[in-house]
Amino acid sequence: MAFSIISLFRTYPFSSGSLSPLNLLSMPPVRTFRISSSLSTSQHDHHPKQQQDQHPSFRDTSTRWKPMCLYHTHGKCNMMDDQVHLERFNHNFSEQLRLNLMEFKNLRSQQFDFFLVLDLEGKIEILEFPVVLVDAKTMDVVDLFHRFVRPSQMSEQRINEYIEGKYGKLGVDRVWHDTAIPFMEVAQQFESWLIHHRLWRKELGGPLDKAAFVTCGNWDVKTKVPQQCQVAKMKLPKYFMEWINLKDVYLNFYKRRATGMMTMMKELQIPLLGSHHLGVDDAKNITRVLQRMLADGALMQITARRECNSTGKVEFLFKNRIR
Ligand SMILES: [Zn+2]
């Protein structure tokens, strides 16, 4: 059977908000990523060519998998005219998220227009805040918001150790240090990004407009965002009051339990791309699970909701859920 590959992407310019460009001329990003690119592919033994052959639904037209330029995701890449850099690093956030026409036959109408796939990194404080914006009707990846986050209540030495341990092995510690900003600023830039995409109205200050967060588990929105807001001494934004835990939808739709992203990907035969526990790669891989579930006919519904009062109690809306 011949699969016709179609490109579903609108190429939106990155909205980097009020970021001021860094002078990166003295520190070419290429050096920063060299480990990430080879490590992530060899460690998981995922040769991109093989992946494409084995998984026709996620075949894409690129010849090989490339790591994202993480300066670019921050709107700070100044090597866009360097062919070697462009060949080594991916500057198109949706490149590995292309779908083919066969995927659409079971697609059903959704109650949301957009999904925001969020996958935070950082146990003590949030270190990375990646969000993939997916069109619910076309499964098109519309945009990516990606920020590294600098902890606000940690000594410089502790931050350095923390980042070395977490991102050093992925080869992205340097870019983390070059780009990370405090959570308060990330939250402001994220709100500008939401407004830019007409997903939220600041003057109303309420929930998202016809959009919902999609996470793998409840931890991100239930626990970590409120904790980080407390640390940053800011009020929890109203758009963090409800979310879709993909694992609960997965359980109810496929009638089988998946305890995490890796299990879902394995069961759905979706190849892992990039580095597991690099937030931006995890968010993209979760997006691939979401796309597959939408393609299979799953209905995405809110699975958990937080009360807007002082108790902030969370109600879980699915009877069958992963605990
Ligand atoms: Zn770049």
Automatic annotation (TrEMBL):
Is the keyword Hydrolase assigned to this protein? yes
Q: Which Pfam families match?
A: RNase_T (PF00929)
Q: InterPro entries, from UniProt?
A: 3-5_Exoribonuclease, ERI-1_3'hExo-like, Ribonucl_H, RNaseH-like_sf, RNaseH_sf
A single GO molecular-function term is: nucleic acid binding
This protein's source sits in the domain of life called Eukaryota
Q: Record's CDD domains? A: ERI-1_3'hExo_like
* UniProt feature, compositional bias: Basic and acidic residues: 43-61
Where is each Exonuclease domain found? Answer: 114-299
Keyword set for this entry?
Exonuclease, Hydrolase, Nuclease, Transferase
What SMART domains does UniProt report for this protein, alphabetically?
A: EXOIII
Please tell me whether the keyword Signal is annotated for this protein. no
In residue numbers, the region (Disordered) covers 38-61
Q: What is this protein called?
A: Polynucleotidyl transferase ribonuclease H-like superfamily protein
Organism of this sequence? Melianthus villosus
Instruction: Recall the taxonomic lineage recorded for the source organism.
Output: Eukaryota, Viridiplantae, Streptophyta, Embryophyta, Tracheophyta
